[in-house]
Amino acid sequence: MHARVQTQKTKTGPEEKFDLVSQCALFDVNRLSRLLTGLYNAKMKDVPLSISQYTLVVNIEALAPARVTEVAKAMLMDRTSITRLTEPLITRGLLKIEQSEEDRRVKHLTVTTKGRNALRASEQAWQDAQLDFYEAVGPEQWKLLRKTLRDTVHMFRAHARIEDVSEPE
């Protein structure tokens, strides 16, 4: 049984009461996220890296040698989540962590040869999932969605006074 939220109609503006289902930004973002996660999980079920591992390894490779804080910033995650995600990959020999030569307190993450092989073995499945989504929504909707998502992240972070990070073009 679904609960219906009763709202009182008021003038548009900050005083307006929002219907949780029809007006909640997180509700719609989560719905799309679940659809995409299902698509990517189905495509990547037989490859060495999960979706979260794949995006993590891609980011580490792009930033290499990458400090945990740099990876966390690029992925909009906290350091403890990055550490938790990297530990099994380090154990499997896909990533390694080394002390910086310049500052022994700083540790860098790098992708090993075994990690690059896992990345290559997972890449086609990831591309297949991306292509399925692209074909489902079409090029114009994809461009609009991508731009809207990136613009919204920047606007929200600016409003919340969250430090900006560089993002891929």
UniProtKB/TrEMBL annotation:
<keyword id="KW-0238">DNA-binding</keyword>
<protein>
    <submittedName>
        <fullName>Transcriptional regulator</fullName>
    </submittedName>
</protein>
<dbReference type="InterPro" id="IPR023187">
    <property type="entry name" value="Tscrpt_reg_MarR-type_CS"/>
</dbReference>
<dbReference type="InterPro" id="IPR036390">
    <property type="entry name" value="WH_DNA-bd_sf"/>
</dbReference>
<dbReference type="GO" id="GO:0003700">
    <property type="term" value="F:DNA-binding transcription factor activity"/>
</dbReference>
<dbReference type="Pfam" id="PF01047">
    <property type="entry name" value="MarR"/>
</dbReference>
<dbReference type="InterPro" id="IPR000835">
    <property type="entry name" value="HTH_MarR-typ"/>
</dbReference>
<keyword id="KW-0804">Transcription</keyword>
<keyword id="KW-0805">Transcription regulation</keyword>
<dbReference type="GO" id="GO:0006950">
    <property type="term" value="P:response to stress"/>
</dbReference>
<dbReference type="InterPro" id="IPR039422">
    <property type="entry name" value="MarR/SlyA-like"/>
</dbReference>
<feature type="domain" description="HTH marR-type">
    <location>
        <begin position="22"/>
        <end position="154"/>
    </location>
</feature>
<dbReference type="GO" id="GO:0003677">
    <property type="term" value="F:DNA binding"/>
</dbReference>
<dbReference type="InterPro" id="IPR036388">
    <property type="entry name" value="WH-like_DNA-bd_sf"/>
</dbReference>
